[in-house]
Amino acid sequence: HRVTTYDHVREIVNNTEGRIGISPCMCREGAKRRGEPCKVTGRVETCMCFGDWADHFIKLGAREITREEALDIIRQNEEDGLVLQPTNYRKLDFICSCCGCCCGVLKIHKVLPNPAVQWAHNFYAEVDAELCTACGICVEKCQVNAVTMDEQSKCAAINLDRCIGCGNCVARCPSDAMRLLKVEVEAVPPDEKTDLYRILAQKE
């Protein structure tokens, strides 16, 4: 699975030439119907589609939105602390905005011992102990249980076996103690969906 940052998605939205659609999150709707409403956000319309996929899903009932509306939804998703999961290839067709309580993928992530190796991510979080005030917001906003509070040092601690570099802890840290660092080897997804399927077929 692939994860990206909000800066990257804003760049994509600002440069897209096709239509943009917004649709309800299937995971969040399913959880609500099971009597397990989302603990992270009360909004359901969070998942976006672009270009040809937007044309297709708008015909099926997705709502067409403007670039300005898309950027406002992205802002709200960032404030809520949702994890951005785009397509596993560089031509972005859709992007899900996921929470750790409803998303099937993130829920599985939480029960694995070293889940970060299952993700294609180019960043990881780091905390500046001198700036950290132990407010706990980063622990609350992390959707994959990668951040804990060290009671002895009174400082946030990041488990790199769990961190997927989504940046939610960085965006919401009031003391600027969190930052994202680049991984040593960048994960570069294939260009198109057909390239992805070709790679998967070769591995079988």
What would you say about this model in short?
The protein has 204 residues and is of the alpha+beta class. It contains 8 helices and 9 strands. 34% of the residues lie in helices and 20% in strands.
How does the overall form come out from the CA principal axes? globular
> Which range best describes the helical content: under 10%, 10-25%, 25-40%, 40-55%, 55-70% or over 70%?
25-40%
Query: Main beta sheet, described?
Result: 5 strands, antiparallel
Q: What's the end-to-end separation, in Å? A: 17 Å
Over all CA atoms, what is the radius of gyration? 17 Å
Plain-language structure description:
The protein has 8 helices and 9 strands. It has helices spanning 6-15, 26-33, 51-59, 67-80, 104-111, 137-141, 168-172, 193-203, and strands at residues 20-24, 45-50, 63-65, 83-86, 94-98, 123-127, 147-150, 155-158, 178-182. The strands form 3 sheets. It has a 5-stranded antiparallel sheet. A two-stranded antiparallel sheet has the order 6-9. It is globular. The protein has 204 residues and is an alpha+beta fold. The longest helix has 14 residues, at 67-80. Strand 4 (83-86) and strand 5 form a beta hairpin.
